[in-house]
Design goal:
The protein is an alpha/beta fold. It has three domains: 131 residues, Rossmann fold, CATH 3.40.50.12160; 245 residues, tm_1862 like domain (pyruvate-formate lyase- activating enzyme, Alpha-Beta Horseshoe); 56 residues, Nucleic acid-binding proteins (OB fold (Dihydrolipoamide Acetyltransferase, E2P), Beta Barrel), CATH 2.40.50.140. Helices cover 36% and strands 22% of the residues. The strands form six sheets. A six-stranded parallel beta sheet has the order 2-1-3-4-5-6, sandwiched between helices. It has a five-stranded mixed beta barrel with strand order 17-18-19-21-20. Strands 7-10-13 form a three-stranded parallel beta sheet. The chain is globular, with a radius of gyration of 23 Å. The chain binds 5'-deoxyadenosine and iron/sulfur cluster. Iron/sulfur cluster binds next to α6. This is tRNA-2-methylthio-N(6)-dimethylallyladenosine synthase.
């Protein structure tokens, strides 16, 4: 048995990184590494980084500055060293540069290599002098094949990576470079992993992929499963109550997926379908491979199939060449579609992407002004949707305790946090029917609709 060692993992960026961080902890557990909440005194620190926008990447360097002090302190007063590792997309994109800029970094490894962590850790522990480790290959299939079959216990709501990488090459995006080509896990691997975590108490799964609806995994009979087919298979699992998936590309919304929303009550009526821009000119320059009318058509078909469906999206303002008219097209699309939750960003030029070399970069102050206008409109839509929920009954999966005694918080089908009073921790993990009594910009409050009609306290 190895002695216990302290592992501190910090995660930046998307849900895929949150999932990867969890799996890194699973891989390192047999070596005696147990997770702790702070870098100070840790035997190993992993920064699982994000490269999607400039700010995210810069954060890593400022955090490394802080970690330098902890590493020094540990070396001065202890015997064991602190291994500092940078993982994820910054590692993939800038591994060598990172090593050069930050001498304290012992190990750099990309998103596709963490199944090889035990070996890397052993080498880092033995390393003398300048022997540092860098592993930024792309052996995707190998990774999924070599991760421990036994996943660690997850919460009532869990994530499962089903697809990774992207072949779309939107001109602003680093993902095809940092995560590599599209790869889909075999269907039955996902079904089995889901069965396993459902047996441990999970009630909701969110299927993860950079381009999740491009999923085309091998089925058991040599056929190929689409995401729609996978959703059907997962729907059959007893004890699993809710299924979500993120992030989708409009181009890959096919009939199978639309029918899944129509036919499968476990598939939540909420879809994150990034459109990025409402201008045909900009969509084309972004290489999104569809125009605004196509987006309207897809949304229409989805809503016909599932009238309760609500949408969220990502937006980029200030893409190179975006005119005021282009931006107004985006506002117009937002008004026509109506979104209930969104992420919106100023365009951030990423090294090595085609858009970063385009002429007509939009000045920072114009980006800021457009972002503020867009976010005002989106916030208005979000609040209106939340207010419209008041008086409705919703099924809420209770998954954490609230700030106050007796208060629990759960998620509505639309991912809104819902607060409810008068319950106990024994109710965690239940899906309860709540009548919504109040709405805020980012959350709701509800009261229990008891069988028999009597109601408990309200948040
Ligand atoms: N600049 C700004 N936003 C970006 N995104 C991706 N790349 C960039 C970039 N270079 C946004 C997109 C994407 C989300 C995950 O991040 O909106 O959907
Ligand atoms: Fe990036 Fe476009 Fe792929 Fe999404 S679809 S990950 S935005 S390249």
């Amino acid at each position: 048995m190895s002695a216990t060692k302290k592992l501190f993992v910090k995660t930046y960026g998307c849900q895929m990184n949150v999932y990867d961080s969890q799996r890194m902890q699973d891989v390192l557990a047999p070596l005696g590494y147990q997770s702790v909440d702070e870098a100070e005194g840790a035997d190993m620190v992993i920064l699982n980084t994000c490269h999607i926008r400039e700010k995210a990447a810069e954060k890593v360097f400022s955090d490394l500055g802080r970690i330098r002090k902890h590493k020094k302190a540990k070396e001065e007063n202890g015997t064991d060293k602190m291994i500092v590792a940078v993982a994820g997309c910054v590692a993939q994109a800038e591994g060598a540069e990172l090593m050069r800029r930050e001498p304290i970094v012992d190990m750099v490894f990309g998103p596709q290599t963490y199944h090889r962590l035990p070996e890397m850790v052993a080498r880092a522990n033995r390393a003398i002098g300048n022997d540092r480790i860098i592993d930024t290959d792309f052996p995707v299939e190998e990774k999924f094949d070599h991760l421990p079959a036994q996943v660690s216990q997850q919460g009532y709501s869990a994530f499962i990576a089903i697809q990774e990488g992207c072949d779309k090459f939107c001109t602003f995006c680093v993902v095809p470079y940092t995560r590599g080509a599209e790869y889909s896990r075999p269907g039955m691997d996902i079904v089995n992993e889901t069965r396993q975590i459902v047996a441990q108490g999970t009630r909701e799964v969110t299927l993860l992929g950079q381009n999740v609806n491009a999923y085309h995994g091998a089925g058991p009979d040599g056929d190929e499963w689409t995401l729609g087919r996978l959703l059907r298979e997962l729907s059959e699992i007893d004890g699993l109550e809710r299924i979500r998936y993120i992030t989708s590309h409009p181009r890959d919304v096919d009939d199978d997926l639309i029918f899944a929303h129509r036919d499968l009550p476990k598939v939540m009526p909420f879809l994150h379908l990034p459109v990025q821009s409402g201008s045909d000119r900009v969509l084309q320059a972004m290489n999104r491979k569809h125009d605004r009318q196509t987006y309207f058509d897809i949304v229409k078909r989805l809503r016909e199939a599932q009238p309760d469906l609500a949408l969220s999206s990502d937006f980029i303002v200030g893409f190179p060449g975006e005119s005021e008219k282009d931006f107004e097209d985006t506002l117009d699309l937002v008004r026509q579609v109506g979104f209930i939750q969104t992420f919106s960003f100023k365009y951030s030029p990423r090294p090595g992407t085609p858009a970063s070399a385009m002429e007509l970069q939009v000045p920072e102050e114009v980006k800021a002004e457009r972002l503020a206008r867009l976010q005002d409109l989106l916030a208005e839509q979000q609040l209106a949707f939340n207010q419209n929920c008041v008086g409705r009954e919703m099924d809420v999966l209770l998954d954490r305790t609230g700030k106050f005694e007796g208060q629990l918080v759960g998620r509505s089908p639309y991912m809104q946090p819902v607060h409810v009073n008068g319950l106990t921790e024994a109710d965690l993990g239940r899906i309860v029917r709540l009548k919504i009594t109040a709405a805020k910009p980012f959350s709701l409050a509800g009261e229990l609709v008891e069988e028999g009609g009597s109601e408990r306290n309200v948040a």
